[in-house]
Amino acid sequence: MQLGGKFKLKVRALSRHDHLGSFLPANGGPEGRDGGADSVYDFGEEMATFLADSSEVDADDQGPELDSEISQKVMNLEALQRIASRGIPWGGGMRALVWKLLLGYLPEDRDSWDGALVEKREAYAKLRSELILNPSESGGEQGGAADGPLERREIPDGDHPLCLGEDSIWHRYFQDAEIATQIDRDLERTHPNSRFFAGDSKSSRINRESMRSILLLFAKLNPAVSYVQGMNEVLAPLFYVFSSDPDAQQASDAEADSFFCFVSLLSNSVDHFCPHLDNSPKGILSTLADLSQLLKANDEELWRHLELSNKVRPQFYAFRWITLLLTQEFGLPAVIRIWDALLGNPSGVQEMLLRVCCAMLLCVRRELLEGDFMANVKLLQSYPRVDLERLLNVAGQVVTPQSRGPT
User: Residue-wise over 151-172: b if at least 16 C-beta within 10 A, else e?
Assistant: First the structure.
C-alpha cells in the first residue's frame, strides 16, 4: 500500500530525533506542578474549579445561539468561529461537534455528516489494520488457519523473524516497535495526575492504547516527520474532548476522529517539529521571530527590556508555547478553552496562537519589567496563573500586521 495521499503532510526529509526533549517538564505538565506527584484527580473536578474561578462570560449563555446554528441544514462556519472564540458551552457534546466542523473533519452540509463519518472511520480502520503490524498474525500469503504445524517451506522468507531485509514484515515491525516504545514512554507522562490518561485502570489503558495507535499511524504515514516527543501533548485535548462526548456512539469512535483532526491541526505547523526546517519560512525560528515583532508592535518598551536589556529572546520560553499549542502552560480545562479561541480564529490557529503568546507577555508586564534575565526566564518557563478570559481578551486586542492595515 502506498503511504501518503490526503493523510500525509508535506515536509522535506529529516532525521528523526526528539526535537523538544529539553523543553518538556520532567513531571509531565502543569498538573504535576499544581497537584504534586501523589495528587490524582479526574478532570471533572478541575473543570468545576476552573469554571468557578473563571471570570468569563458564562459560555452557557451561548447555548441557544449555538443550538440554532447547529440546527441549520448548512453550517455557517463564520458564525461557529465567532461562537467558539467566545467559549463553547461545557457539556452536551457541543465542543466535540464544533471542533470537528472547524477542523474540516465534518462537511458544512448537515445531511452529509453520517456518510462522511462512516467513510472516514472505515478508512481509519483500514489504515490501522494494514499499517500497524503484527507479524505473528499475518500468516504470510497462505490465508486461513493451518490444520497442523507449519512446515518450513510454508513460511515465506520475508515473514521469518530472522529475516531483516527491508521488505521483511518483521523488519518493519521492529522499526515500528522502536517508535511505539518512545510513544509509550511519553504517554506515561501525559497528564500523569488524571485518571483519564494515567494509572492502571482498564479505561486509562484503553485510552493510552488508542493514542499510541494514532501517533504510530501518523508516524508511518509521515516518515519524514515520524513521531516527535510532544505530539502526545497536542493529541491529548482532541482525544479527551472526543472521548467525553455524551453520545456513546460518537465517543466510541474517538480514536478515528482524533486521528483525522490531529492531522488537520498539525497540517500548518508540522514544520515546527522538524529541526531541518527551523530556518524555513514556516519553521519554528521564523515563528519565534514573528512573536518578537508582534510584541515590539504592541509594547516596544517591554520588547526592549526583554530582548535588548535582558537578552530574553523568545527561544528561551516560547519554543514550547508555540510547538505544543500551550498544552504545557495551563491545565487541560484552560487549554480546551484556549483552543476554542484558536480554532475559532478566522485567520487560522497559528495567527491566534501568536496573539495569545503575546498576550501572555503583556499580562505579566509589570513583573517582567521589574525582573532580570534569570527571573524573567523562570517566570515565562513556568507561567503563573492568570485570569484566562482577561488573557483571551488581551489577545483579541493585540495589533497584528493584518489588523493594522496599510500604513
Answer: eeeeeeebbbeeeeeeebbbbb
- pLDDT band of residue 375 (cuts 50, 70, 90) is very high
391 vs 407: CA distance, rounded Å: 28
275-400 placed in CATH 1.10.472.80: yes
- Give the pTM: 0.81
Give the max Cα distance, the chain: 81
Distance CA 324, CA 322 (A): 6
For the chain, give every domain's residue range: 111-139+155-265, 275-400
Residue, of 227 and 175, whose pLDDT is higher: 227
Cα 343 vs. chain centroid, distance in angstroms? 12
Contact between 305 and 254 under an 8 Å Cβ cutoff? The reply is no
pLDDT above 50: residue 313? yes
Report the CATH architecture of 111-139+155-265.
Orthogonal Bundle (1.10)
180: Cβ contacts below 8 Å, ≥ 6 apart:
212, 216
Q: What is the average pLDDT score of the chain? A: 82
